[in-house]
Amino acid sequence: MGRLERLLVPVTGDEHSLYALDQILEFAATRKCRVAVLSVVPPYTGDLGSSALADLKRLLRQPSELALARALEMANARGMDIDCLCEEGEPFEVIVDTARRLKADLVAMGVADRSALGRLVRGNVPLRTIGHSERDVLLVPQGAVLGFRSILLATDGSRYCTYAAVTALQLAREHDADLHVLYVADLTFPDSAEGQLAADMEVEHGRAVVEAIAARAAQEGVRARGHVAQGEAAERILATARRLGAECLFIASHGKGGLARLLLGSVAEEVVASAHIPVYVAVRDRLRR
User: Fold this and answer.
1) Which Gene3D superfamilies match (predicted)?
2) What is the pTM of this model?
């Protein structure tokens, strides 16, 4: 991962997306990042005459134009220059394609307050963006303050999590942050001597994973501490984030691609659905598959 220099921020004009933009602009101003703000006009697939269709398209563009105007006001108030883009199409597809075209280092999105995971999954733009993106995605819940002074990295030791670890280490080093590394041991083994042995080996494996990352952090001058928890993964990750007062949570998308993966009850999906702090989803390993 290189430095975060080019950020893409999709906005809808809703309160949660503008809140996320405000947090991203604050972050970008301190790092001199280039910010592109994108608003997507939904496509119209009905059957209207050319005159009526033109009027409808103008009407459909109005929310996006208003959102971009508000984004410009927010940037001007900080003395920042931003690029504003208005595109038409399926929102998550346009976001993914625009991030690729602009060579964005990160897609940063707001997420609304959610009360049910099922509602989040069905047609949800942030999750579908994560499922298809070739770029890392940062999700900022409404009301959360974006910061990197205390980072929690959740890892399972996979190669996908290796990239997430590299990303978290770099940001921790740049922000002089405390890095916490968490492995949640899967102890769903039979109640037998063999099962107990397997559980013990799983815990030991977890310790080895977090200790290896902590050792690498020490070599890079980053303060790091390892944690091994037991239980349901998403629940333990979120509980640990609260207990440690983490400001940002790093997880990896496991690269299976598409919304189908997100419907399989992945840990990443559950964490994104319930997180109270910004969640950085590392997905770039897909580019090297």
Assistant:
1) HUPs
2) 0.88
In a domain, 129, yes or no: yes
The whole-angstrom separation of Cα 45 and Cα 47 is: 7
| Structure tokens given for 98 | 């625009």
Mean pLDDT of 44-53: 61
- What stretches of 133-232 show up as alpha helix (H) in DSSP? 159-174, 193-219
pLDDT tens digits, 100-158? 999 999 999 998 755 444 444 445 788 888 888 889 999 999 999 999 999 999 998 88
Closest CA relative to residue 82, chosen from 170, 6, 177, 188: 6
Q: Is residue 242 part of a domain?
A: yes
Q: Which two tokens stand for residue 101?
A: 């075209």
At 125, list the tokens.
């733009």
Scan for tokens 């790093």, then name that residue: 250
**Two tokens at 278?**
């910004």
| Domain range for 136 | 1-146
Q: Is residue 284 part of a domain?
A: no
CA torsion 151-143-269-67 (nearest 10°) is -120
Burial degree of 2 (CB within 10 A; 0-12, 13-18, 19+): exposed
